[in-house]
């Protein structure tokens, strides 16, 4: 006998209590509320043969993007292989995704979840996991299109419809469809003001369109609804800090860092990425951030040879550079060089994007600004492949611009500022950069 979960997707169990626990954990994950892992582990303690429970637990660890999650994924895959004969097709599809991720075939994992959705468009768990995989791989079109494939199988009457809208809004934004993205995101938030992912989709639109005042209003006015008890709140606060940086309000960005972005030490990779990214933006501006880099660098030190997910490695390199940890920086580069010769999708990301980026950062620290700018100018064309959002990958352009400035290439600085102003308008930060450019000597134009 089998039951269906809250979305209407089949679950190979006759234990209603297990399905109810999965429903609760899935709802918590959709909204990034705490703590879906505790909920599903409690269910598995009562029902060790709950196949979809194991799939869900594995999926939670899979989307952590951390090598430290590999032992748990291996443990879960062993359990799922033991239970394979009782699994349904949906659950076997989840197993295929977990198996692919463990083989560092990250693209294969995203497609395995996508295959589940072709056959079972009501599997909102698979959709959310695929959505995160596509995000990690910079697959902007799939962030939009996987959701579009299943939307007709849902209706506005479904209790969880707003979560689909939030995911779709983010996909639309990453594809540059800003008006549709904002409208969809706002509708999702109207349905559920606590939906931090939908809030974040609208925040991305405002970031990409150069609307810091609108962004500050959007994030501040709704914070009481999406922030308390939300595992994703740190990232939304990061977006608020970016708006303040665009307005040249560096001190306010640091206040947000201390109070809501990085209030306590955390070894969660996704949280560390936002922390390092914000500090690096301030580092490029010459802002003294005190000892804030130290605890990040200490954690990254233990990950320097992982060579697992290169987007994380880029931020580790920033921490090593900012704290003068040259040995750790060299260990990181060596580990990436060694891994780049292998044949998985992970190693292709390292070879094509990750290794060039950390090499450019290392050159920046060594004051070889011409080399740093040359590498970044080239790799920026394909940087989407190693994941993150457009807003997160903007760190490459900001570093390129500063490398060009410090290297004396004022023509490149001028071109990059023209590019940025055309996209985002003349913000206070862009205006300040124009002032710095005007004060610097420049060769005669041809």
TrEMBL record:
Keywords: Coiled coil, Repeat, TPR repeat. It comes from the Bacteria. SUPFAM superfamilies: TPR-like (SSF48452). InterPro entries: TPR-like_helical_dom_sf, TTC38. Residues 63-93 form a coiled coil. Belongs to the TTC38 family. PANTHER family: TETRATRICOPEPTIDE REPEAT PROTEIN 38. This is Tetratricopeptide repeat protein 38.
């Amino acid at each position: 006998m089998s039951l269906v979960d809250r979305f209407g997707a089949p679950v190979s169990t006759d234990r209603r209590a297990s399905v109810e626990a999965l429903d609760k954990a899935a709802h918590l994950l959709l909204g990034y509320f705490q703590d879906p892992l505790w909920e599903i582990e409690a269910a598995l303690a009562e029902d060790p043969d709950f196949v979809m429970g194991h799939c869900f637990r594995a999926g939670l660890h899979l989307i952590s993007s951390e090598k430290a999650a590999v032992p748990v994924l291996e443990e879960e895959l062993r359990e799922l292989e033991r239970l394979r004969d009782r699994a349904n097709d949906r659950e076997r599809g989840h197993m295929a995704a977990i198996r692919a991720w463990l083989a560092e075939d990250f693209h294969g994992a995203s497609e395995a979840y996508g295959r589940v959705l072709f056959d079972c468009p009501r599997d909102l768990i698979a959709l959310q996991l695929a959505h995160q995989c596509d995000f990690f791989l910079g697959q902007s079109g799939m962030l939009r299109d996987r959701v579009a494939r299943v939307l007709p199988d849902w209706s506005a009457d479904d209790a969880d419809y707003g979560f689909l809208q939030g995911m779709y809004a983010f996909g639309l934004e990453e594809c540059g469809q800003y008006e549709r993205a904002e409208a969809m995101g706002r509708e999702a938030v109207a349905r559920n003001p606590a939906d931090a992912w939908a809030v974040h989709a609208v925040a991305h639109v405002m970031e990409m369109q150069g609307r810091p005042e609108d962004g500050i209003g959007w994030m501040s006015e709704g914070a009481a609804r999406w922030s308390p008890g939300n595992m994703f709140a740190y990232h939304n606060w990061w977006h608020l800090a970016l708006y303040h940086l665009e307005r040249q309000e560096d001190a306010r960005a640091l206040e947000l860092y201390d109070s809501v972005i990085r209030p306590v030490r955390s070894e969660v990779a996704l949280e560390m990425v936002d922390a390092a990214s914000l500090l690096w933006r301030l580092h490029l501006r010459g802002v003294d951030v005190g000892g804030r880099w130290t605890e990040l660098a200490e954690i990254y030190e233990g990950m320097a040879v992982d060579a697992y997910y290169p987007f994380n490695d880029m931020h580790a390199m920033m921490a090593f550079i900012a704290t003068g940890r040259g040995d750790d920086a060299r260990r990181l580069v060596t580990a990436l060089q060694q891994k780049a010769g292998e044949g998985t999708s992970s190693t292709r990301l390292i070879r094509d994007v990750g290794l060039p980026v950390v090499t450019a950062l290392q050159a920046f620290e060594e004051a070889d600004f011409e080399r740093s700018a040359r590498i970044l100018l080239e790799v920026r064309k394909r940087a989407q492949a190693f994941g993150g959002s457009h807003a997160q990958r903007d760190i490459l352009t900001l570093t390129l611009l500063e490398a060009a400035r410090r290297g004396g290439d004022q023509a490149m600085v001028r071109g990059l500022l023209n590019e940025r102003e055309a996209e985002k308008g003349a913000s206070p930060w862009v205006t300040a950069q124009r002032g710095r450019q005007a004060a610097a000597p420049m060769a005669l134009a041809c």
